[in-house]
Automatic annotation (TrEMBL), chains A, B:
EC number(s) given by UniProt: 3.4.17.19
The protein's role, per its UniProt record: Broad specificity carboxypetidase that releases amino acids sequentially from the C-terminus, including neutral, aromatic, polar and basic residues.
Residues the entry annotates as binding Zn(2+): H267, H271, E297
Taxonomic lineage of the native organism: Bacteria, Pseudomonadati, Bacteroidota, Chitinophagia, Chitinophagales
Necessary cofactors: Zn(2+)
Protein's recorded name: Metal-dependent carboxypeptidase
Catalytic activity: Release of a C-terminal amino acid with broad specificity, except for -Pro
Family, per entry: Belongs to the peptidase M32 family.
Keywords recorded for this protein, A-Z: Carboxypeptidase, Hydrolase, Metal-binding, Metalloprotease, Protease, Zinc
Cofactor binding note from Swiss-Prot or TrEMBL: Binds 1 zinc ion per subunit.
Active site: E268 (proton donor/acceptor)
Organism field: Chitinophaga skermanii
Length: 503, 503
C-alpha cells in the first residue's frame, strides 16, 4: 500500500534534506574560511581536495531524485504557509536549474576554471595578458554554451546576469549605466575642476594593534554580534557565514594606510549584519538565504558609504579616533578628515576606487562582458580594449596588463555577470537609505550620536528577515515604493559632494 | 560481459574511496578544531549538527557494499606490495568490524553518549556523582553489550581494550600494573621520605605573550614544521591532524604557572611530530595512520618526559629561559629548576600528576573499568570505590566527587579501555628511548646542545613512517628487540629520581 504523506511530513522530509545539504555546504565554507585565515602553506593541496570531495557530496545530495519527487509533491499541496510555498518554489527552481547542466559540461567547466585560474595567476606574475588569453577564450566559449543551457529571454548575457541577480537584464543595466554616464560624468568633471582635499595624513604610520582594536570597536558599535561571529585577518577581506549564529568577517591592516582597514571593516560588517539577521528557523531553506548579490552588496555599501563615509558618523566617532591616533590626527579637523575620506579621483584599480568613479570601473566590465557573450568583443587584444575604455571613461592610462585587464579574479573563476551587482548594490543602498531617512526622521541625528540601533532594526525588518522571499526587484519596490531608480544615488552623490567640493 | 579489473585498477578504486572518506573525516576534524579554538558561543548548536551530518556521511561511505566487494576482491590478489596487502587487510578488518554493529545498538549508544555527557556536565556542576550514576550505569550496560558484538578471547574487557590498542589484553596489563605496584611503590616511598624540592618559582607571574612565544620556540626547535601545522590556544591542549601537511596543536597559558604551558606544548609537539611524520602518499589508508593510541602517547611522553624533563634538555635551554624570565628565574640555578620540574607528589588529579604517580591514577581507572565490565564493580557507590582506591594507592583523601570520580570526561563519552594507553605510552616511550640511546651513543650530548635532529630522524624511520603497518606489539619488538617491558621505565625512573632525591 502506497501511503500518502501529509503535507507536514513531506515538508519535514524536504527541510531535513535541505538542512543536511546546508550542513555540508557550510562545512565547505568553514574549510574555505580556514584556508584564507589559518591554513599552513603545505596544507593547501589536500585542503583543495577535501573541498572538492565535499562539493561533490553536496552536489549529489542536491541532485537526488528523491528530493525532486518531494518538491514536486509539495508543489501541489494547498496547505503550505506563504513562506513554505516560497521555499518549495525556489528550491524546485534551483533543483531544476541544477539538473539542466550536462555532466560533460560540468566537468569541462570545472577543468577550465582550474586551468583558467592558474593561467591568470601566471599571467599576473608575468604581467602578460597573452598568457591568460587562450584560457579566457575557452572560458568565454563555455559561458556562451551555458547561456543556451540555462535559456534566456532577449540577450544571452541575461542568462548569466540572472545567476547572480534574479530578474535583472541588460535593459535595466543599460538604462542604469546610461544614467551613470549622463548624470555622474558632469559631477565628476565639476569635482575634477576643484582643488583636491589633502589626505596625506591617512597614509601615515597607524600601529597595527591599535587599528585592529579600532576595527573591532566599529563592528561592535554597528551591532555585529561577537557571540555569533568573529573577525580575523586575511589577505583579502571577506565575509562568510556558516549560519546566522556563526558569521565571520576578515580584514587586513596596512600600517601605512588607515583607510584600508577601516572601511573594509565597515563594509564587511554590513555584509555580516545581513547574514546575522537571516532567520535561523529557515536554516538551509531559500527564505533563510540572502536575496541576491546586489542586495548583499547594498547592505555593505549602505554601511560603508551612506553611513560610514558620512559626516554624521564621524561627528560621533572622530573625537575618539583623533584621541586614539593623536600622532596622526591631532592637527586634523573633523572637516579635513571628512573631506579626505571622500576624496574623488579616477584611478586604475576598481577595489581602490572612490564611491563615484567606482561605477565606471563596473560599467567597463559590464560592457566587455556583454560584448564577449554576444560576440561583439573578442578576447584577442582584450587588454587593448580594456585600456581604451579606461582612457575613455576614466581618463587614465593603464601602464601594464597587471594593473589593467588582469586586476580582477572574477573571469578566471568564470564569474561573468557578477560585476554589475557591485553597482546595483550601491544604487539599492542609496535608494534604501533614502527610504530609511524618510521613515525615520531622526536617523541622521541618531547616527551623529553613535546610535545605529534604529537603522539596524529597520534593515532587519525590511530586508534581512525576508531572505530570498522577494527578488531584489520585488524587495526594492516593497521597501522603497518603486523599482530600482538611479536618481537616489545621484541625489545622494550630488548633495554630498557639492558640499565637500563647494560646487 | 563482466570485465575483470586489474589489481592496479581495483587498488586505485579502493584508494580513491578511502581518500574520499578521509576527506570527510578530516573536514570533521577541521570543524572540531574550530569548535575548540575560534567558534563563537552561539555557533555551537549548529556546529554540532554539522558534525553529526558529516559523521553520518562518512559512516555511509565506509559501510558502502561496493567498498566491501573491492576489498574482498583485492584480498585474493597476489600481486600487491606488502604495504598494499597490509592496507587492504586492515581496511577489511575495520570494514567488517564496523558492519558488526546493529543499527539499533549504534542509535542507542549515540543517544546514551549524548545523555551521559550532559549528565556528567551537570554532575560536575553540582559536584554530585548521584546525578551521573544512572546514565553511567546505562553506558556500562551498552559497553558490556559491545563486548559481545565485537567478540573477544578471555576477558570481555579485552574487546574494548583492543579498540584502542590492538593486541593488548588484561594479561599484559595485569602484569604491567603488578610491576607498577611492586617496583614503583618502593621508589615513591623513598622519595616521600626525602625533603620536597622547592618549586614555588614556577608558580609566579610569567607574562602570557612571553610564554606563548617561548612555547612556539620549543616547538620549532623540536622540529615541528610550521609550514605543515600551527599552534593555537584552547581550553584543553590537544593535537589534531587533517593530513601530514596540516597538523595543529593547541596549548593554554596560565600566567601564574609556567609548567602548564611548557610541558603541554612539548607533549602535544610529540604527538604532532608523529602526525607530520606519517606518509602523505598513504593518505586515507591504514599505513598512513598512527599505529595505536599507546604508540601515539609514547611519542608525546618521550618528548615531554624523557627529553623535556631531562637534565640534558635544560642544560641547553635553561640559560635562555632564565634570561627571558629573569624576574622569576635569575636566582634559580639549573639544578634547582631541574629538581622543581620533577617534583614527585601524590595528588588528586590525573592530568596534573607527575610522571611517576601518574600510573597509579591510570591503574585505578583500569581496575575499575575491568571490574565494571566483568560485573565485580558496580556503578552504585562508585565514588566511594574511587575514593578508597585513591586512599589505598596514592594515600590522598578525595574531598568531593568533582575532584574524584567525575574528573575525567572519558566514561561520559563511552571511552572504556582508553586509560591504559596513557601508561602504555609512557612505558613504550622509556623502552623506545632506551633503544635510541643504545643506537645513538651521542644522543644525550646532542640534546644537551639543542640538537634533536638525529632523535627525530630515528623516530621518523623507526616509528612514524610505518603507520599502522605494525601493531604496537610488533612495532615494539621490531624497534627494541623485545615485547613491552616495564623494566625500561623503572630503570629510567630509578636512575633519574635517585639522582634528584639523593636516594
Amino acid at each position: 500500500m502506497n501511503i500518502i504523506k501529509t503535507t507536514a511530513e513531506l515538508y519535514s522530509d524536504y527541510q531535513s534534506k535541505m538542512e543536511k545539504i546546508a550542513d555540508v555546504r557550510n562545512a565547505i565554507a568553514v574549510l574555505g574560511w580556514d584556508q584564507e585565515t589559518y591554513l599552513p602553506g603545505k596544507g593547501a593541496a589536500i585542503r583543495g581536495q577535501q573541498i572538492t570531495t565535499l562539493s561533490t557530496i553536496a552536489h549529489e545530495l542536491f541532485t537526488d531524485a528523491q528530493l525532486g519527487d518531494t518538491l514536486q509533491a509539495l508543489q501541489s499541496r494547498e496547505d503550505l504557509t506563504a513562506t513554505q510555498k516560497k521555499n518549495v518554489a525556489l528550491s524546485l527552481e534551483d533543483y531544476e536549474k541544477n539538473k539542466k547542466y550536462p555532466a560533460a559540461f560540468v566537468a569541462a567547466l570545472s577543468q577550465t576554471t582550474s586551468d583558467c585560474y592558474h593561467a591568470w595567476m601566471k599571467a599576473r606574475k608575468e604581467n602578460s595578458y597573452a598568457v591568460f588569453e587562450p584560457l579566457l577564450e575557452k572560458m568565454v566559449q563555455l559561458k556562451k554554451e551555458e547561456t543556451h543551457i540555462l535559456g534566456y529571454t532577449g540577450h544571452p548575457y541575461n542568462a548569466l546576469l540572472n545567476e547572480y541577480e534574479k530578474g535583472i537584464n541588460i535593459q535595466t543595466l543599460d538604462t542604469v549605466f546610461a544614467d551613470v554616464k549622463t548624470s555622474l560624468s558632469p559631477l565628476l568633471q565639476a569635482i575634477a575642476a576643484k582643488p583636491k582635499p589633502n589626505n596625506a595624513f591617512l597614509q601615515q604610520h597607524y600601529p597595527k594593534d591599535a587599528q585592529w582594536q579600532y576595527g573591532l570597536k566599529l563592528l561592535k558599535e554597528m551591532g555585529f554580534d561577537f557571540e555569533a561571529g568573529r573577525q580575523d585577518l586575511s589577505e583579502h577581506p571577506f565575509t562568510t557565514s556558516f549560519n546566522p549564529h556563526d558569521v565571520r568577517v576578515t580584514t587586513r591592516v596596512d600600517e601605512q594606510d588607515f583607510s584600508n582597514m577601516t572601511w573594509s571593516c565597515i563594509h564587511e560588517g554590513g555584509h555580516a549584519l545581513y547574514e546575522q539577521g537571516l532567520l535561523i528557523s529557515e536554516y538551509g531553506l531559500p527564505c533563510g538565504e540572502a536575496a541576491s548579490l546586489g542586495i548583499h552588496e547594498s547592505q555593505s555599501r549602505l554601511w560603508e558609504n551612506n553611513v560610514g563615509r558620512g559626516l554624521a558618523y564621524w561627528q560621533y566617532n572622530y573625537p575618539a579616533l583623533q584621541k586614539e591616533f593623536a600622532n596622526n590626527l591631532s592637527n586634523v579637523s573633523l572637516e579635513e578628515f571628512y573631506h579626505a575620506i571622500n576624496l574623488v579621483q579616477p584611478s586604475l584599480q576598481r577595489t581602490e576606487a572612490d564611491e563615484l568613479t567606482y561605477h565606471f570601473h563596473v560599467m567597463i566590465r559590464y560592457e566587455i562582458e556583454k560584448g564577449l557573450i554576444e560576440g561583439s568583443v573578442s578576447t584577442k587584444d582584450l587588454n587593448h580594449t580594456w585600456n581604451q575604455y579606461y582612457k575613455q571613461y576614466l581618463n587614465v592610462d593603464v601602464p601594464n596588463d597587471g594593473a589593467g585587464v588582469l586586476q580582477d579574479i572574477h573571469w578566471s573563476h568564470g564569474s561573468f555577470g557578477y560585476f554589475p551587482t557591485y553597482s546595483l548594490g550601491s544604487f539599492y543602498a542609496a535608494q534604501f537609505y533614502a527610504a530609511a531617512q524618510r521613515q525615520m526622521k531622526d536617523l541622521s541625528q541618531n547616527i551623529a550620536t553613535g546610535d545605529y540601533h534604529a537603522l539596524l532594526q529597520w534593515l532587519r525588518n525590511n530586508i534581512h528577515v525576508h531572505g530570498r522571499f522577494y527578488t531584489s526587484n520585488e524587495l526594492c519596490e516593497k521597501v522603497t515604493g518603486e523599482p530600482l531608480n538611479f536618481k537616489y544615488f545621484m541625489d545622494y552623490a550630488q548633495a554630498k559632494y557639492a558640499g565637500i567640493y563647494g560646487i
